[in-house]
Design brief:
outer membrane lipoprotein receptor (LolB), chain A, 14-stranded antiparallel sheet, two-stranded antiparallel ribbon, alpha+beta
Length: 261
Protein backbone atom coordinates (compact mmCIF):
# COMPACT_ATOMS: atom_id res chain seq x y z
CA UNK A 1 0.00 0.00 0.00
CA UNK A 2 1.15 3.55 -0.70
CA UNK A 3 -0.52 6.64 0.73
CA UNK A 4 -0.43 10.30 -0.28
CA UNK A 5 1.97 12.65 1.44
CA UNK A 6 0.79 14.98 4.22
CA UNK A 7 -0.88 18.13 2.86
CA UNK A 8 1.27 21.24 2.67
CA UNK A 9 -1.43 23.08 4.59
CA UNK A 10 -2.65 21.21 7.66
CA UNK A 11 -5.70 19.19 6.63
CA UNK A 12 -7.78 20.34 9.56
CA UNK A 13 -7.00 23.93 8.57
CA UNK A 14 -8.23 23.26 5.04
CA UNK A 15 -11.38 21.55 6.29
CA UNK A 16 -12.16 24.32 8.77
CA UNK A 17 -11.74 27.21 6.35
CA UNK A 18 -14.88 29.33 6.14
CA UNK A 19 -17.11 29.14 3.10
CA UNK A 20 -16.39 32.81 2.46
CA UNK A 21 -12.68 31.98 2.26
CA UNK A 22 -13.32 29.20 -0.25
CA UNK A 23 -15.54 31.42 -2.41
CA UNK A 24 -12.88 34.14 -2.40
CA UNK A 25 -10.22 31.64 -3.47
CA UNK A 26 -12.41 30.26 -6.25
CA UNK A 27 -13.30 33.74 -7.47
CA UNK A 28 -9.66 34.68 -7.85
CA UNK A 29 -8.83 31.37 -9.50
CA UNK A 30 -11.48 31.94 -12.15
CA UNK A 31 -10.61 35.56 -12.93
CA UNK A 32 -8.08 34.72 -15.71
CA UNK A 33 -9.94 33.84 -18.87
CA UNK A 34 -9.02 31.02 -21.21
CA UNK A 35 -7.89 32.74 -24.39
CA UNK A 36 -6.83 31.18 -27.65
CA UNK A 37 -3.37 32.30 -28.70
CA UNK A 38 -4.83 33.13 -32.09
CA UNK A 39 -6.62 36.10 -30.44
CA UNK A 40 -3.50 37.57 -28.89
CA UNK A 41 -2.78 39.89 -31.84
CA UNK A 42 0.08 39.80 -34.38
CA UNK A 43 2.75 37.20 -33.67
CA UNK A 44 6.42 38.02 -33.85
CA UNK A 45 8.71 35.70 -35.81
CA UNK A 46 9.61 33.57 -32.79
CA UNK A 47 5.98 33.19 -31.75
CA UNK A 48 4.95 32.36 -35.30
CA UNK A 49 7.56 29.61 -35.51
CA UNK A 50 6.40 28.26 -32.15
CA UNK A 51 2.77 28.26 -33.30
CA UNK A 52 3.72 26.33 -36.42
CA UNK A 53 5.47 23.72 -34.29
CA UNK A 54 2.35 22.62 -32.43
CA UNK A 55 2.67 19.00 -31.28
CA UNK A 56 0.27 16.22 -32.20
CA UNK A 57 -2.37 15.03 -29.76
CA UNK A 58 -0.41 11.82 -29.26
CA UNK A 59 2.75 13.75 -28.41
CA UNK A 60 0.93 15.91 -25.83
CA UNK A 61 -0.65 12.87 -24.19
CA UNK A 62 2.64 10.94 -24.20
CA UNK A 63 4.36 13.84 -22.46
CA UNK A 64 1.57 14.06 -19.90
CA UNK A 65 1.76 10.35 -19.11
CA UNK A 66 5.53 10.60 -18.76
CA UNK A 67 5.15 13.61 -16.42
CA UNK A 68 2.89 11.72 -14.00
CA UNK A 69 5.01 8.56 -13.94
CA UNK A 70 4.43 6.74 -17.21
CA UNK A 71 1.74 4.52 -18.72
CA UNK A 72 3.44 1.36 -17.46
CA UNK A 73 3.33 2.64 -13.87
CA UNK A 74 -0.38 3.35 -14.26
CA UNK A 75 -1.08 -0.08 -15.75
CA UNK A 76 0.71 -1.65 -12.77
CA UNK A 77 -1.92 -0.30 -10.35
CA UNK A 78 -4.43 -3.07 -9.65
CA UNK A 79 -6.71 -0.92 -7.48
CA UNK A 80 -6.92 2.64 -6.20
CA UNK A 81 -8.80 3.90 -3.16
CA UNK A 82 -9.22 7.67 -2.78
CA UNK A 83 -10.75 9.27 0.30
CA UNK A 84 -11.60 12.95 -0.10
CA UNK A 85 -13.56 15.82 1.43
CA UNK A 86 -16.27 17.58 -0.57
CA UNK A 87 -16.97 21.25 0.15
CA UNK A 88 -20.11 22.84 -1.30
CA UNK A 89 -22.13 25.96 -0.67
CA UNK A 90 -24.59 25.82 2.21
CA UNK A 91 -23.47 22.47 3.60
CA UNK A 92 -20.88 21.09 5.95
CA UNK A 93 -17.98 19.31 4.28
CA UNK A 94 -18.49 15.57 3.98
CA UNK A 95 -16.18 12.64 3.36
CA UNK A 96 -16.44 10.35 0.33
CA UNK A 97 -14.50 7.34 -0.85
CA UNK A 98 -14.02 6.16 -4.42
CA UNK A 99 -12.55 2.72 -5.03
CA UNK A 100 -11.42 1.54 -8.46
CA UNK A 101 -10.41 -2.00 -9.40
CA UNK A 102 -9.02 -3.03 -12.75
CA UNK A 103 -10.14 -2.75 -15.41
CA UNK A 104 -13.35 -0.73 -14.95
CA UNK A 105 -15.06 -1.24 -11.60
CA UNK A 106 -15.81 1.78 -9.42
CA UNK A 107 -17.58 2.15 -6.07
CA UNK A 108 -18.45 5.60 -4.67
CA UNK A 109 -19.98 6.50 -1.31
CA UNK A 110 -19.22 7.46 2.28
CA UNK A 111 -16.51 5.23 3.79
CA UNK A 112 -17.94 1.95 5.13
CA UNK A 113 -21.51 3.04 4.28
CA UNK A 114 -24.20 0.53 3.35
CA UNK A 115 -25.40 2.79 0.52
CA UNK A 116 -23.15 3.55 -2.45
CA UNK A 117 -23.00 3.71 -6.24
CA UNK A 118 -21.42 0.80 -8.07
CA UNK A 119 -20.22 0.67 -11.68
CA UNK A 120 -19.13 -2.55 -13.37
CA UNK A 121 -18.13 -2.04 -16.99
CA UNK A 122 -21.09 -0.53 -18.86
CA UNK A 123 -23.66 -0.88 -16.04
CA UNK A 124 -24.22 1.08 -12.83
CA UNK A 125 -26.38 0.58 -9.75
CA UNK A 126 -27.44 2.45 -6.64
CA UNK A 127 -26.83 -0.05 -3.84
CA UNK A 128 -28.48 0.09 -0.41
CA UNK A 129 -29.62 -2.08 2.49
CA UNK A 130 -32.71 -3.13 0.51
CA UNK A 131 -30.83 -4.22 -2.59
CA UNK A 132 -29.69 -2.44 -5.68
CA UNK A 133 -31.41 -0.44 -8.41
CA UNK A 134 -29.91 -0.14 -11.86
CA UNK A 135 -29.26 3.40 -13.02
CA UNK A 136 -30.44 4.73 -16.40
CA UNK A 137 -28.33 3.99 -19.45
CA UNK A 138 -27.26 7.62 -19.95
CA UNK A 139 -25.95 7.86 -16.38
CA UNK A 140 -24.26 4.46 -16.61
CA UNK A 141 -22.55 5.48 -19.87
CA UNK A 142 -21.07 8.53 -18.16
CA UNK A 143 -20.00 6.62 -15.06
CA UNK A 144 -18.42 3.81 -17.07
CA UNK A 145 -15.98 6.33 -18.56
CA UNK A 146 -15.00 7.48 -15.07
CA UNK A 147 -14.68 3.85 -13.91
CA UNK A 148 -11.71 3.16 -16.20
CA UNK A 149 -8.89 3.00 -13.65
CA UNK A 150 -6.36 4.31 -16.17
CA UNK A 151 -8.64 6.86 -17.82
CA UNK A 152 -9.23 7.20 -21.56
CA UNK A 153 -5.78 8.58 -22.38
CA UNK A 154 -3.94 5.32 -21.67
CA UNK A 155 -4.28 2.97 -24.68
CA UNK A 156 -6.86 5.35 -26.12
CA UNK A 157 -6.95 3.80 -29.60
CA UNK A 158 -7.66 0.33 -28.21
CA UNK A 159 -10.56 1.83 -26.22
CA UNK A 160 -12.08 3.44 -29.32
CA UNK A 161 -11.17 6.97 -28.15
CA UNK A 162 -10.02 9.42 -30.83
CA UNK A 163 -7.63 12.19 -29.84
CA UNK A 164 -7.35 15.52 -31.66
CA UNK A 165 -5.09 18.49 -31.01
CA UNK A 166 -7.36 21.54 -30.75
CA UNK A 167 -4.77 24.27 -30.22
CA UNK A 168 -3.06 26.37 -27.58
CA UNK A 169 -4.81 28.50 -25.01
CA UNK A 170 -3.52 30.86 -22.33
CA UNK A 171 -4.96 30.37 -18.86
CA UNK A 172 -3.90 31.60 -15.44
CA UNK A 173 -0.56 32.89 -16.80
CA UNK A 174 0.23 29.50 -18.39
CA UNK A 175 0.22 28.17 -21.94
CA UNK A 176 -1.92 25.05 -22.28
CA UNK A 177 -2.28 22.46 -25.03
CA UNK A 178 -5.92 21.58 -25.65
CA UNK A 179 -6.84 18.01 -26.61
CA UNK A 180 -10.30 16.75 -27.54
CA UNK A 181 -11.00 13.10 -26.70
CA UNK A 182 -13.98 11.68 -28.58
CA UNK A 183 -15.43 8.41 -27.30
CA UNK A 184 -17.06 5.76 -29.48
CA UNK A 185 -20.53 7.07 -28.49
CA UNK A 186 -19.65 10.60 -29.62
CA UNK A 187 -19.19 12.11 -26.16
CA UNK A 188 -16.26 14.52 -25.98
CA UNK A 189 -13.98 15.45 -23.10
CA UNK A 190 -11.69 18.48 -23.37
CA UNK A 191 -8.25 18.32 -21.74
CA UNK A 192 -5.89 21.24 -21.13
CA UNK A 193 -2.27 20.31 -20.40
CA UNK A 194 0.42 22.66 -19.13
CA UNK A 195 2.81 23.21 -22.04
CA UNK A 196 5.77 23.49 -19.66
CA UNK A 197 5.16 20.62 -17.21
CA UNK A 198 2.84 18.31 -19.14
CA UNK A 199 0.45 18.11 -16.17
CA UNK A 200 -3.31 18.27 -16.62
CA UNK A 201 -4.50 21.71 -15.50
CA UNK A 202 -8.11 21.85 -16.67
CA UNK A 203 -10.79 19.56 -18.03
CA UNK A 204 -14.31 20.03 -19.41
CA UNK A 205 -16.89 17.29 -19.85
CA UNK A 206 -20.68 16.97 -20.02
CA UNK A 207 -22.85 16.27 -16.99
CA UNK A 208 -26.34 14.91 -16.42
CA UNK A 209 -29.21 15.88 -14.16
CA UNK A 210 -31.62 13.42 -12.52
CA UNK A 211 -34.96 14.85 -11.39
CA UNK A 212 -38.03 12.76 -10.55
CA UNK A 213 -36.56 9.82 -12.40
CA UNK A 214 -35.96 11.86 -15.55
CA UNK A 215 -32.51 12.25 -17.12
CA UNK A 216 -31.48 15.43 -18.89
CA UNK A 217 -28.23 16.89 -20.15
CA UNK A 218 -26.79 19.27 -17.59
CA UNK A 219 -24.30 22.09 -18.03
CA UNK A 220 -20.70 21.24 -18.84
CA UNK A 221 -18.55 20.60 -15.78
CA UNK A 222 -15.19 22.37 -15.63
CA UNK A 223 -12.46 20.97 -13.39
CA UNK A 224 -9.22 22.64 -12.32
CA UNK A 225 -6.44 20.44 -10.90
CA UNK A 226 -3.76 21.42 -8.36
CA UNK A 227 -1.29 20.01 -5.86
CA UNK A 228 0.10 16.96 -7.68
CA UNK A 229 1.87 14.56 -5.32
CA UNK A 230 3.45 11.13 -5.80
CA UNK A 231 1.56 8.08 -4.60
CA UNK A 232 3.65 5.02 -5.33
CA UNK A 233 5.09 5.66 -8.79
CA UNK A 234 2.31 7.94 -10.09
CA UNK A 235 1.48 11.62 -9.53
CA UNK A 236 -2.13 12.41 -8.60
CA UNK A 237 -3.80 15.80 -7.97
CA UNK A 238 -4.77 16.25 -4.32
CA UNK A 239 -6.95 19.32 -4.73
CA UNK A 240 -9.39 20.23 -7.47
CA UNK A 241 -12.34 22.49 -8.18
CA UNK A 242 -15.41 21.49 -10.16
CA UNK A 243 -17.71 24.22 -11.43
CA UNK A 244 -20.79 24.44 -13.63
CA UNK A 245 -23.06 27.36 -14.34
CA UNK A 246 -25.04 26.69 -11.16
CA UNK A 247 -22.66 25.23 -8.57
CA UNK A 248 -19.06 24.93 -7.42
CA UNK A 249 -17.57 22.02 -5.46
CA UNK A 250 -14.13 21.86 -3.87
CA UNK A 251 -12.39 18.52 -3.35
CA UNK A 252 -9.51 17.92 -0.93
CA UNK A 253 -7.88 14.51 -0.86
CA UNK A 254 -7.22 12.99 2.53
CA UNK A 255 -5.55 9.80 1.31
CA UNK A 256 -4.89 7.74 -1.81
CA UNK A 257 -3.97 4.07 -1.51
CA UNK A 258 -2.72 1.90 -4.36
CA UNK A 259 -2.57 -1.86 -4.66
CA UNK A 260 0.21 -2.99 -6.96
CA UNK A 261 0.64 -6.70 -7.84
Amino acid sequence: MAAGFAPRVGFNEVRMMSLASWITIVAFMWIPSVTSVSTQGPLDETSAQSAQADPSAEEVVARHLEAIGGADAMRAVASRRMTYWVHMFGRDAYLLERFWTRPSSMRTGPPEAAAYTLTEGERSWRVGPDGRQELPEAVAASMSKAADIDGPLVDSAAKGVTLAYTGRVHYDMSDLHQITATFADGVQWEYFFDARTGLLRKMTRPSFRMLNGQISRGPDAHQLYYDYRPVGSVLYPHFWIQSTEDHTHLFVVEEIQLQEP
